[in-house]
Input
Amino acid sequence: MEYIVAMNGGDGPNSYTRNSKLQEESFNSTKPLLIGCIRDNLDIHKSCKVFRIADLGCSVGPNTFSCVNTIVQEVQLKFNAEFPGFTSLPKFQVFFSDTFSNDFNTLFNALPADRVYMAAGVPGSFHGPLFPKGSMNFMHSSCSCHWISEVPKEVLTKDSRAWNKGRITYVRSSCEVKKAFSAQFRSDFKAFIGARSEELAPGGLMVISIPCKTDESDFIMDLFDVLGDAFADMVHEGLVEEELLDSFNIPFCIPKPSEVIKVVSSDEHFNILKVEQSFVTAKLSSAEEIMFYTSQIRAVTEGLINKHFGPNILMDDLFDRYCHKLKEFSTRFQNIEKWGTLFLAVKRVIMKDELIQTSSEA
Amino acid sequence: MEYIVAMNGGDGPNSYTRNSKLQEESFNSTKPLLIGCIRDNLDIHKSCKVFRIADLGCSVGPNTFSCVNTIVQEVQLKFNAEFPGFTSLPKFQVFFSDTFSNDFNTLFNALPADRVYMAAGVPGSFHGPLFPKGSMNFMHSSCSCHWISEVPKEVLTKDSRAWNKGRITYVRSSCEVKKAFSAQFRSDFKAFIGARSEELAPGGLMVISIPCKTDESDFIMDLFDVLGDAFADMVHEGLVEEELLDSFNIPFCIPKPSEVIKVVSSDEHFNILKVEQSFVTAKLSSAEEIMFYTSQIRAVTEGLINKHFGPNILMDDLFDRYCHKLKEFSTRFQNIEKWGTLFLAVKRVIMKDELIQTSSEA
Output
């Protein structure tokens, strides 16, 4: 199946470039952990000539460059601290990777002119291999791993017990629907982790930030689910075909921290260095804040919706309705709700059969 | 200065994807040489894990993939022939590189599903560094190096002796104009060669195919120059501002083989393995052939024209006129003219100070 998830391209008013503040907040909440991880756990070698970094699920817009800049800067600082006076810093090569539908043209044209790294774009699904074995030194993924490779088939099958009729997420659905999404997440995340353990050089680091469920709630998921209510009204009014809505689900699953940890722990190539949850307060009390969330969710879902419902879907109408629904929804939690990001740092261990090889390549 | 040359994107009727047969013919005329060069001159090592290939000035469309497939296939064949029974072929990583204006989205979406290599896109001018030092095994450039980084300033300066008033190429211009373009080519090509000698791993190969002047003529350049006549008519009729035409030149210079060889020879990092001229017969006798050439030239120049003359330029009108002009032009050479491609294969020599390093990395 073609992997079609991509954020809104370009740099217009509905673009992801201009509407990715939530993801920025999420990254900022884990940034000190990322920096600490590089300082404390990255092994660097004086003879390292090329330091290869991948940003997986890079999308477009300022967040991408902000993540990468932080990594490059910290590696440089570490290098200077460990080898004072040594002037031959490694060259940085950064691979920006996302699905084939991602707007790489916009990404490339927005590359900072003063960057100190060489840039490359890598199209493809991160649920499979993207880079040659052992070729990467640092891999990073922020706000991406919760996108699953496809909506579980049973969720879209009329006769199935997991049929998710009339809803676009699992959040208020049956236990079977939830299980199906959860299984898909585990399978996809396992494939993600497996691919990365091949691609990371022994001793290399990977840092993942992923939205996660907190004990009390699943705010992010709820936010997406409310969009289903707006759709339902449009079906009711004959503006959207019922069958089209029934066959639409957002390929998206917010995991529990324990699910993430379990998958990573089961890969013998990885040592978990740090797991930590960070939180951002959800603000949905004023009209401006609700407008803001509406535009953020639109930038993320519009591509999917267009692909599924076709060009005649009344997109502005849908998101106007969504905005109103969010207002109702916001009264439910009165500004005290938080949404969580799970930070996970792992090191690619050096396997026994890699020992000789690594020392000769260092 | 921003480097703006890029072929027409997308895959519509005027796209480069659908209108790059001339470049295909040029590549096909040198393909046997490319294959022979890999067979006879590529040093491969059993321990090579990643074989990195760059296609420089890749543009979009089928030619790009056809070049790269040929290279990958031949390297595989060579590997199998030299190490029969050894199953661990290197992984191929192919870097498609072109200017920031290139349509990488279209390129990525057209990547062959059955490709045996990992793909990356690298935006940037090939007149500067694009890859980490010594990181590439094979570099290739077909029909690209004749694009220069900018139109020489004196050609656009009113008071200069090299002012190229009313013309868009140097081909029927003064000696000063020709000299200015030629100097720009040499300077740019020197920068290109210098960057590649840094990026190629010692022992690596580079193959360049570049349109070149034959003894008798400069057919390709003439073809572009005729477009200037169409522009001149539009100025005459008040459809295009005279000043706008005076400030427009195609950043394009077809070199003599000797100019190319001189630049390469002067770089101590390269050993010239082969230089050969191949020829394609120019066919401009029928109306269909003239239409064909018109669409080929349009796919190459439309982006430049749009950028310079703005969105109000009557593009269809311009190329209708061009088509008529080409008919007049074609009577001049009655189907006997050929256009030449210079094939050049070089090997990155191993410098004295690289000897130890290379043997430990092999």
